[in-house]
Write a structure and sequence with these properties.
The protein is α+β, with helices and mostly antiparallel strands. It contains 13 helices and 22 strands. It binds flavin-adenine dinucleotide.
Length: 518
């Protein structure tokens, strides 16, 4: 027999299967020797009280053996000779679109401007060490997209968008730990993601799909409002009538191209701010209300939202035990984001702290039409580059100094490798953003005692949280509202905000596109 229970236990008990068994037996009047196995379905941490607890959802096997069924991948047929779909971009949206195409019997041809995961590493080293930015190979561009060298957080608020569990199971099938199916806030880690991405690529190729790296799409062939082909950087053209456009929100050249070709796009509100780094032990002390974190607890994340000056201000993409990375995609700009390894064992915690921007905030960029938000975003990244010292050195300020509006007289070494330049953040941001961040941080400090400290360092800007442009599509067919056969997909099109939602949208676009192919 199997019984499902929810139980709250201490972190020590949650980590000890024997002790857990004892407690389950005792609490539920089940003879200990009759329990053959306890399977944990869900695990979450409740740190609201002084004593941190772990919530577990369990299945208890009583007088019945537990059979561990490994997660299996779907049957992927050979699609070498099947009808073709062009997918632009090998981020989560593009790769999961490709897998779904194969599952449904179509042949995906993936065109990716960047390099494969291995070759990409060299370019990431170069950004960190030499401050050089390859516009086709960086933290945002290349196999696996922007999510490859990330924390690999797989938590999404957008459960309504689709089957999150299905994507998690696929990731397990491609080599991720099955713990991502259990944890309430699953993550994979930068050290593990590239192997999983490579496994996905190998499966796509093994089943007859094709992937081309170093292949930047520079134009679309359009006739009678229908897509007829895509042009590559080398001038060659691929004839096609089905294109899934999954180029991410950093592909500004694609947004420019669509605008130039009078293909409808819209400016979209997005969020922007800074990335703040604290010592991890400080965040642990605040969140777990302790002097030293228990060895049974992971480095603590935090999540905070406030209304400040009539706008939402919130933590975004928080990386416990992580590192701040230089995520520019062009020369002449500075962009930050964060990653962490699977163990989250770095001594620092970083998080994007961003404020909501509205369309009226980009008014002074209105000459760029639907690209006004994108140009506003770009202007801040370029200003950060100038005040940072015309390199990948990031404008930085100690947190208390930022609130008080004074340039820090010195800065500690942070995890951001290219280095820091002490500035007043008012020289990076327009006044309304600066003031909102200052007030918001004060409000954060009231909710999280100890958060406001000069040990924390603010890095600027965190500007690529979501797309400043939407590529509108028909809600039913998922085709572009004006161009037949073009399927705007993923984060760049404005339909996703993270690895999981991008993967879900990739699958949806593949399904919509294949419905028409048949
Ligand atoms: C450092 C970092 C950490 C992050 N951490 C997390 C996290 O922990 N959890 C999370 O959910 N999200 C995280 N994100 C965000 C997440 O990576 C994105 O939301 C997600 O990757 C979007 O997927 P996508 O496929 O829509 O676009 P992208 O991942 O941006 O992929 C687009 C792909 O298209 C390619 N491309 C662009 N233009 C062209 C062209 N003209 N021709 C051919 N190819 C082109 C690009 O090279 C890129 O590979 C992080 C992002 C960064 C940068």
């Amino acid at each position: 027999m199997q019984y499902e229970f929810t139980i709250q236990v201490s972190p020590e008990v949650a980590a000890d299967p024997n002790e857990l068994k004892n407690i389950v037996a005792r609490n539920n009047g089940i003879p200990l020797e009759e329990i053959s196995h306890i399977q944990i379905l869900k695990r979450s941490i409740d740190a609201r009280q002084r004593a941190v607890k772990i919530n577990l959802k369990l299945i208890v096997f009583v007088q019945e053996d537990f059979i561990n069924k490994p997660i299996e991948l779907p049957e992927y047929p050979d699609v070498s000779n099947a009808s073709e779909v062009i997918i632009i971009g090998a981020g989560p949206a593009g790769l999961f679109a490709a897998l779904r195409c194969i599952e449904l019997g179509c042949k995906p041809i993936v065109l990716e401007r960047g390099k494969d995961v291995q070759a990409r590493r060299r370019d990431l080293k170069a950004i960190n060490r030499d401050h050089t930015v390859d516009p086709d190979s960086n933290y945002c561009f290349g196999e696996g997209g922007a999510g490859t060298y990330s924390d690999g957080k797989l938590y999404t608020r957008s459960k309504k968008r689709g089957d999150v569990h299905r994507i998690l199971k696929l990731l397990v099938g491609f080599g991720a730990t099955d713990q991502i199916l259990v944890e309430a806030h699953p993550h994979i880690g930068t050290n593990k993601l590239p192997r999983i991405i490579a496994e996905i690529r190998e499966k796509i190729i093994e089943r007859g799909g094709e992937i081309y790296f170093g292949t930047r799409v520079t134009d679309f062939e359009i006739k009678n409002s229908e897509i007829r082909g895509v042009t590559l950087l080398d001038g060659s053209t691929i004839v096609t009538n089905k294109v899934i456009l999954a180029t991410g929100h950093s592909a500004r050249d694609i947004f420019e191209l669509l605008y130039r070709k009078k293909i409808e796009i819209e400016a979209k509100p997005f969020a922007l701010g800074v990335r703040v780094e604290h010592p991890q032990h400080l965040i642990d002390q605040i969140q777990y209300k302790c002097d030293v974190r228990s060895p049974y607890l992971p480095p603590s994340p935090y999540s905070i939202v406030k209304q400040v000056r009539g706008r939402g201000m919130y933590s975004f993409c928080m990386c416990p035990g992580g590192v701040i990375a230089p995520c520019a995609t062009s020369l002449g700009e500075v962009v930050t984001n964060g990653w962490s390894p699977s163990k989250r064992d770095q001594p620092t915690a970083n998080s994007g702290i961003v404020i909501e921007l509205r369309l009226e905030d980009f008014k002074s960029f209105s000459k760029y039409g639907p690209l006004s938000g994108m140009y506003f975003q770009k202007s801040i990244e370029q200003q950060a580059w100038r005040v940072g010292g015309e390199s990948q050195r990031v404008p930085a300020q100690r947190l208390n100094d930022m609130i008080k509006g004074r340039v820090s007289s010195n800065l500690p070494v942070t995890s951001y490798k290219p280095g820091l330049t002490a500035v007043d953040m008012l020289t990076v941001f327009p006044e309304f953003i600066h003031k909102t961040l200052q007030d918001g941080f004060i409000a954060f400090g009231k909710s999280m005692k100890g958060y406001l400290t000069n040990e924390a360092v603010v890095h600027a800007p965190e500007s690529r949280t979501s797309s400043p442009v939407r590529i509108p599509r028909d809600w039913k067919t998922l085709e572009h509202i004006q161009i037949k056969g073009l399927y705007p997909c993923g984060e760049g099109a404005g339909y996703a905000g993270g690895i999981i939602s991008a993967a879900i949208d990739g699958e949806k676009c593949a399904e919509a596109c294949i419905k028409v192919c048949r």
